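Progress against Task 2.4 (sequence-to-structure conversion) is shown through the following example record, which the project officer requested during the mid-term review.
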Amino acid sequence: MTLRDDIRSKSDAKPSSGKAPRKRHDDAIRLDGAGTVRYRRQEPKLSETKVRAAGAPPAPPERRRSARPTPGWKLLARGALAVALVVGLAAQVSGEGKDVQGDVTARISVAREALDSAREAFAKGDLVAAEDDLGVAQHSLHDANRSVASLGQQGGVPFSRVVGDRTVAVELLATGERFVGTARGLVRDVRTIPDAASRHEDGFYATGRILNDRVPALKEGFSELDRQLDLLDALSSRAAGSGLPQLREAGSEFQRLLPDARKALASGGEAVDQLPDILGEREFRRYLLWFQNPAELRPTGGFIGTLGELTLDRGAVKDLKVESIYNVANQANRTVDEPPPIPFLRFAEQDPPVWGLQDANWSPDFPTAAKRFQDFYEQGGRSTTDGVIALTVTPVEDMLRILGPVELSEYGYTLTADNFQTTIQDDQKERRVVSDEDPKKILRDFLPALLKKLASAPDAKRSQALAVVTKAAKSGDIQVYFDRERQEALLGTAKASGAHRAYEGALSLIDANIAGFKSSRDISTTLDRTVEVAEGGTVTESVAVERTHSGETETHDNLNYARLYLPPGSEVAETDGWNASELTDEAPEWGAVLGGWTDVPRFGTTSYAADFRRGKLDLDQGRMPLRYISQAGATVKVRTTVVLPDGYVWDGRDDATVEGRRIVLTGTARGDLVYDLTFKPVHD
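Structure tokens generated for the chain above:
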């Protein structure tokens, strides 16, 4: 058993019968002189001065709460990791005390591993694992701190020789420990917000009130982290001027990481400041809800068959309406200033053709599509709204896969991940046939049943189900747009805005099923991208796409308009196999946009391709960034091959097949695929 496993097992140890359970943040782990790991109850709280001098852990911080983690949380964890660079201080400060040095080395090694693991957990949205990892790191840093503090009594080392640098090292470790502890408390309370909502009798409807009530504590938590960063800044400056190489390195590393940590905190603080307004604290806020169906794929994730209007007042759900998109569209004044996109003319039933509300999500850039939809909605005489929230069916299916079936006895249905979409669709079809006034009733009845299932689930399953939300934000299955600029900027930081950005080396395929019924779920798509770099750095690319219709669930052909967004700086050379035309004015930040029909008959296959030039690559830089920007609701198998000119080879990668100057990467795009490739001359 490793030291980390031992720490974790004792942190999670269940109390024996008849004894009160131990609070994990009140316990510490110690190595005795023989190297045995033992639990030690924490000493009573000391003053802040004594805490810094002795390295004892502070009293458990008041529980902090925060909004959903953003990439900034990974920066905070990375900043805490810099504490680990004090690992060699015992050897630098003292030529003796080797037992103490070994203890410090082991403890810091565990902290490094735990903080690294916490970053990975944040990326996956697993807050339970992140909290656990931060707890291990906090315990390890505490004990390493005590060991460093004991130097000067070990091996007869003169105190006067080490007091200055030792004090800086102890304070740096102690502050790092408190930083990790505060972050752990925030994570713990972030996790309790959805837990509290899932257990509340009002379920979903209580979430806003729970968030709103916790805003003061959220602000306090971020203020505390900001104060700790100020102290870390001062200590790292002192450490960077030390005569001890290891301490100097630790100080320099902190100085490099602090700017990013401050940006992360500023972003989190801004989110907390904006939260009351988002939840309608001063005036009620009204948001449109899109329920998108990927079986009828559209640019933002699917056809908007069901539309909702959510009104929040001081966090409480004041009103929630759900209706068919056609109810709204038929009531609306459907004559709008803008003509419909060219592809819709293929099936136009009116002269002149009109652009209906149900087709307003034509742009793959979610903020653009959301604003257009709001405009059409208001032109039809409906309410002014403050934002748009879009969801596909995928997160619901993922939750059902984790939580198990949901019974709707009134309908005689047992809904599972495998039958949810088809059952809901079939029920709504039957209700329309008999002219039911409320064909969407099943969705409103399903939501509380799912929340009840979530509330009664074991902790592990509930945590997995809640992590689905983070996964859905990354894949575009949940997208959000706010009218107010500062709030929309926060979504960009959290990567939940659905913006369709043109990065260097980015490629994107956007499909639109227009009058192809629900055939998109029977389509499998593969995309082969080949990038060749010639001598001198000139880059050419070819993209080949293959679409196959299984005919498994849908009897109709797939009628599909595809757009291929090419990297900035691209010039189209040739197209093949599709009726493609260049649409350069649609998205000027991209190099070019190719669009054309790529229909697939049932049980058939359709292929098409495009070749283009991209300008020159700086070979001296040794870097090639590549991205595949995914479409919400779509699954595409992507194979990327890059060939360098003679005289260059790729740096090795675990996720790729590398043969000299050729590299091959494969992935399934449910979310963006990002590759930052590096290479070097052969003589290196």
